[in-house]
Write a structure and sequence with these properties.
This protein is an alpha+beta fold. It has helices at 9-20, 24-37, 99-106, 156-164, 166-183, 212-220, 222-226, 233-268; strands at residues 42-48, 54-59, 108-114, 121-126, 132-138, 143-149, 188-194, 200-205. The chain is built from 8 helices and 8 strands. It has an 8-stranded mixed beta sheet, with helices on one face. It is globular, with a radius of gyration of 25 Å.
């Protein structure tokens, strides 16, 4: 048996990152969740070549404060909680502090952000270990843009699989965005895809008016909306009570049946 030795930190980071972000859909999911958690009411997703070349997510949230630039991509650094007990009160999509750190290992990550009353934006590019590679001034309105170039480019097998199944991966990503449009009808979520030749195609766009019916109509069509029935909380409570009564009746019936079987056995004896 070969000697047991520790895996170097760089390899551990790459291996673990590949377990956090498994696909195009997961990469987009993490960025959209970060945007919504930052208080955004508008989120724009822009893909180049269905995400194979670039993924870009822009929001109008609160932006990133300069003192958080270095911590932004550090593993298990988060503003959502401080210890395990905080899990009982977490009200955000993300809280583990793994997403951006993992994405650094899997792509070239660049962040453009403008926080609070800052007069200009800042562009920060990170290396694959999550360290700051470059930083400079840029034009950017309040909010944040996160850009991923070459997702899985340094992972030959995964990149090849993503390229081979790109249509399927893109479809899963669209379904995920549709789900977030339904979960957060108060947030406008839009997605466009730019082909390798430069043509731009609208993928989806939700109105963001906090009206679930309008979201369903925009995403799936009016006929789909007409085929649905309202389901209120009171209906859910009624269904739960009915299910409890049915379970109780079934239990009583089972007990009576058992008694009957016992009586039959005694008579036979």
């Amino acid at each position: 048996m070969a000697e047991i030795v520790a895996i170097d930190k760089g390899s551990v980071h790459r291996i673990c990152s590949g377990q956090v972000v498994l696909s195009l859909a997961v990469a987009v999911k993490e960025l959209v969740e970060n945007a919504i958690d930052a208080g955004a009411t508008s989120v724009d997703v822009k893909l180049k070549d269905s995400g194979l070349e670039r993924i870009e997510v822009t929001d109008n949230g609160e932006g990133i404060a300069p003192n958080n630039y270095e911590r932004l991509t550090m593993k298990h650094y988060t503003s959502k909680l401080t210890d395990f007990s905080d899990l009982t009160s977490v009200a955000t999509f993300g809280f583990r502090g793994e997403a951006l750190s993992s994405l650094c290992a899997l792509a070239t990550l660049t962040v453009q952000t403008c926080h609070g009353d800052e007069q200009h934006g800042t562009e920060v590019t990170y290396n694959h270990n999550g360290g700051i590679e470059s930083k400079g001034v840029c034009a950017h309105k309040r909010g944040t843009t996160v850009r991923l170039d070459g997702l899985f480019a340094g992972w030959p097998v995964r990149h090849r699989e993503m390229k081979r199944n790109l249509k399927k991966e893109f479809g899963k990503m669209v379904q995920l965005l549709q789900a977030y449009c339904l979960v957060r009808p108060d947030v406008r979520i839009a997605c466009v895809n730019v082909s390798p030749k430069g043509s731009k195609a609208k993928v989806l766009s939700s109105p963001g008016r906090n009206d679930l019916k309008s979201v369903i109509t925009v995403l799936f069509g009016g006929k789909q909306l007409q085929a649905l029935s309202p389901y209120a909380a009171a209906d859910a409570a009624t269904d739960a009570d009915a299910a409890t009564d049915a379970a109780g009746a079934a239990g009583s019936g089972a007990g009576a049946s058992a008694d009957g079987e016992g009586g039959a056995a005694a008579a036979a004896a």
